Amino acid sequence: MSISETTAAPTASGTALLEARDVIMRFGGLTAVNNVSLTVNQGEIIGLIGPNGAGKTTFFNCLTGLYVPTEGQVSYRGQILPPKPFKVTQAGMARTFQNIRLFHNMTVLENVLVGRHTRTKEGIISAILRGPGYRREEAESRAKAMEYLEFVGLAGKAEHLARNLPYGEQRKLEIARALASEPGLLLLDEPTAGMNPQETRATEELVFAIRDRGVAVLVIEHDMRFIFNLCDRVAVLVQGQKLVEGDAATVQGDERVIAAYLGTPYEENQ
Ligand SMILES: Nc1ncnc2c1ncn2[C@@H]1O[C@H](COP(=O)(O)OP(=O)(O)OP(=O)(O)O)[C@@H](O)[C@H]1O
Q1: ipTM of the complex
Q2: Low-confidence ranges of the chain (pLDDT < 50)
Q3: What InterPro entries is this protein classified in (predicted)?
Q4: Domains in the chain, ordered, with CATH?
């Protein structure tokens, strides 16, 4: 499928990477995402928060090609993305999942190698014949994969089976696998779910380090301390709609956000 051109809007903070415009996702009579637009620029860490069932994961699925939005448009670096996860990864967006999706009976290293397949060129015939091109590429892939494992702190466990890693390390492995596709934008769906405070702090550092490598990050998270420490901007989804978007102080001080989290309607003239 071809990727068609649109115009990428450069912004004050840098080049726009992801531009979601007026995205709507309906499941029968339920509008899970209702007209949401969001831009992520190069060098940014953007947070997506909202109460349970607000539509955050559904929006992620629309961005990453798992769902075809009912309406709206998603582009990356000015190219409209085809709604196919493989094509989205190839274009430069990688993600992790709320419910960890690793190949549990494969080793840690093999899991990262799977993440590299969108960046390898040698075809299936070459792989079967194990020609020189394939062997060279395989060696390069392994070296790169080890580099990503080193980066997330799992190099010492490269030969362990993924299923034997503690939960927090499985989340790190998912991040290494996503990074192995060399994305420009990484989408993290609840990266600290199930982590203890120490692991959460380490994940915070890891996300900063990812940004410092030149990868922008869009992150869904329920841990507010994590989000407000980390993010340049935060968008709040409530019942499928974007209620507020701004820096930490703006969002934290917004009465409507507080009301949405407490489950009480906010009256405009209070
Ligand atoms: N495949 C689907 N079919 C039908 N309804 C769905 C589907 N996926 C999500 N929904 C509904 O869409 C709404 C938004 O769900 P979603 O999982 O996106 O919310 P969320 O903000 O990610 O929630 P949480 O914080 O609990 O993960 C919910 O009402 C959910 O039940």
Answers
A1: 0.96
A2: 1-12, 268-270
A3: AAA+_ATPase, ABC_AA/LPS_Transport, ABC_transporter-like_ATP-bd, BCA_ABC_TP_C, P-loop_NTPase
A4: 1-92+184-270 (3.40.50.300), 101-182 (3.40.50.300)
